[in-house]
Amino acid sequence: MTVTVTCRKATERDVDHLYEIIQGYAEKGIMLPRSKEMLTDQIDTFVIAVQENDDRFIGCGSLTRLGQDLVEIRSLGVSEGYKGQGIGKMIVNHLVEEARRQKIAKVMALTYEVAFFERNGFTVVPKEIFPEKVWKDCIHCKKQHCCDEIAVLKRLD
């Protein structure tokens, strides 16, 4: 039996699943943790990947507005056992299409997975070109002065 994966907008009933996958990445130090309250407040920014046959949660990502022409892909993760199957790419494509729909010109991310984003049309750029990100999130991050994430950017036509 072939399993079909689809992306859909997250709902409040998805918060526990979102928290679980994000917390798994956060414990490894590769994603910022998010509280269940924060996830509930920002639920409209998230999409999730699910198996169509049983609605099993297998991945997530969010699109957060940083400025008039800039959004950030964040909290991008895929459940163990599903990595390497194109699900991350599917989520990124879904988020990029949402940015296009909103007529936003630039999509950025901070990542340790540079090659993944490059395969999806992003290029490496200096973090300093995103003052919107610095003042919105980075000032609250414990890695603020020793950030080792790489900034990537995709310009939309």
- Shape assignment: globular
Portion of residues within helices: 25-40%
H/E element sequence: EHHEEEHEHEHE
Superfamily at the CATH H level?
Gcn5-related N-acetyltransferase (GNAT)
- The name of the CATH architecture is 3-Layer(aba) Sandwich
End-to-end distance: 39 Å
Instruction: Point out poorly predicted stretches.
Output: none
Give the amount of beta strand, in percent: 25-35%
Number of domains: 1
CATH-assigned fold name = Aminopeptidase
Describe the protein's architecture and organization:
With 157 residues, the chain is α+β, with helices and mostly antiparallel strands. The protein has one domain: Gcn5-related N-acetyltransferase (GNAT) (Aminopeptidase, 3-Layer(aba) Sandwich). Helices cover 29% and strands 29% of the residues. The protein has 5 helices and 7 strands. It has a 7-stranded mixed sheet. The radius of gyration is 15 Å and the shape is globular. The relative contact order is 0.15.
In short:
The protein has helices at 15-27, 36-41, 87-101, 114-119, 131-136, and strands at residues 5-9, 46-51, 57-67, 70-78, 106-111, 123-125, 150-155. With 157 residues, it is of the alpha+beta class.
Task: Fill in the keyword field for this structure.
5 helices, 157 residues, Aminopeptidase, 29% strand, alpha+beta
SSE layout:
Elements: E1 5-9, H1 15-27, H2 36-41, E2 46-51, E3 57-67, E4 70-78, H3 87-101, E5 106-111, H4 114-119, E6 123-125, H5 131-136, E7 150-155
Parallel strand pairs: 4-5
Antiparallel strand pairs: 1-2, 2-3, 3-4, 5-7, 6-7
